[in-house]
Amino acid sequence: MKEYKNIKISDFNYELPDSKIAKYPLANRDESKLLVFKDGKISESVFKNSPAFLPEKAQLVFNNTRVIHARLFFRKETGSKIEIFCLEPLEPADYQIAFHQTNETTWKCMVGNLKKWKGETLHQSIVIAGETVILSAEKREQNGNTVAVRFFWDKPFSFAEIIEHSGTLPIPPYLNRETEETDEETYQTVYAKIDGSVAAPTAGLHFTDAVFQELAKKNISTHEITLHVGAGTFQPVKAETLSGHTMHREMVIIPEKIIRAFYENPEKIIAVGTTSVRSLESLYWLGLQLENGLFNPEKPEVLQWEPYEAEPKISLKKSLGNILDYLKNSKLEQIQFSTQIIILSGYQFKVIEGMFTNFHQPQSTLLLLIAAFLGDKWKEIYDYALANNFRFLSYGDSNFYLR
Predict the structure, then answer these.
(1) How far apart are CA 65 and CA 194, in angstroms?
(2) Distance CA 212, CA 400 (A)
(3) Which of 88, 95, 124 is CA-nearest to residue 109?
(4) How far apart are CA 30 and CA 76, in angstroms?
(5) Euclidean distance between CA atoms 264 and 317, whole angstroms
(6) How far apart (Å, rounded) are the C-alpha atoms in residues 212 and 176?
């Protein structure tokens, strides 16, 4: 346990020139470059050819979360601009119930220009379906760098409609530009369905209908889970060692039918994106909690250091079987939980055998996850990509890694 907490973040650094960061996506999603690491060798192709690199009977897992218009801008009577960035719902705490509220909801938010917001209620006027709606924001309690904000409005529209018309899609801060109209389409996956993320699961941005057709021809099965990506995905690790870094929490929803599919065939599971990796690996630890009598049905969660403290004494199949039994006995069709899991070098992957992912920021927890899967080979792969004109970060090129 101690050796994991003593991992130095400085060991996961590399020089990333601004010129290598893709500020915009390619015109055609599936024409991005694809770096393939398979059988210990690096090769490159184009993403539309990605189905050819998948093993027979592979099971691809996608995160179907949809990015919401999470940035809301208000002006005080003095003219000061206040930005409210919605992170996650507090009252009601369930995402789907919160989005269906037609009069008020309270969210955990980050607030820009917070010092100027003395406590007065903020208002803005928006138009939905020809009707003028007054959206108001009331500051509640502050907790660290976040604030609980109560939103209320005067016409019976859902909160999903309210933010869709009043808010702005949040694009990554490292793009150093404002959100543009084209981002509305390009910063969502083609299969995005469930509102809740403040950042896209960017490994999925490369997939197109044509790629899905090729996957079907190869009899590659596809599954959809949901992890609502939080702003913490961009949070840099500021501590010298991992012991000083608190991992962010994210909400995960996985249907029973998918857990059953993995239970019946717990092989060749390939995650599309690090969000899918974290979701799937967290499943194992929930099943182990059930085995050990440590599962809390009131607040299902996987904590940051749990994989390094618990003894992984059961198989993946047994773990998944435990979850299926729990769902059956509880008459639930899905498991919903939060995960704070941090995946570091030395972590033994329990669920996935491969992943699609983009290139990640230096000294980020996402790069740590990649290094856990690849070992020291991550340096060789990133050096190759930098030397061979690959485009980096959210709108950049793709990687496929197979164990």
Answers:
(1) 5
(2) 16
(3) 88
(4) 44
(5) 8
(6) 32
Paired sense of beta strands 104-112 and 122-128, if any:
unpaired
pTM for this predicted structure: 0.93
Query: What gap in Å lies between CA 217 and CA 232, rounded to an integer?
Result: 38
52 Cβ contact list (under 8 Å, min separation 6): 45
**What's at 244, amino acid-wise?**
G
pLDDT in tens, 298-331: 999 999 999 999 999 999 999 999 999 999 999 9
HEC string for the chain = CHHHHCCEHHHHCCCCCHHHECCCCCCCHHHCEEEEEECCEEEEEEHHHHHHHCCCCCEEEEECEEECCCEEEEECCCCCEEEEEEEEEEECCCHHHHHCCCCEEEEEEEEECHHHCCCCCEEEEEEECCEEEEEEEEEEEEECCEEEEEEEECCCCCHHHHHHHHCECCCCHHHCCCCCCCHHHHCCCCCCCEEEECCCCHHHHHCCHHHHHHHHHCCCEEEEEEEECCHHHHCCCCCCEHHHCCCCCEEEEEEHHHHHHHHHCCCCEEEECHHHHHHHHHHHHHHHHHHHCCCCCCCCEECCCHHHHCCCCCCHHHHHHHHHHHHHHHCCCEEEEEECCCCCCCCCCCCCCEEEEECCCCCCHHHHHHHHHHCCHHHHHHHHHHHCCCCECCCCCEEEEEC
Write the pLDDT tens digit of every residue in 320-378: 999 999 999 999 999 999 999 999 999 999 999 999 999 999 999 999 999 999 999 99
Specify the amino acid at residue 374: L
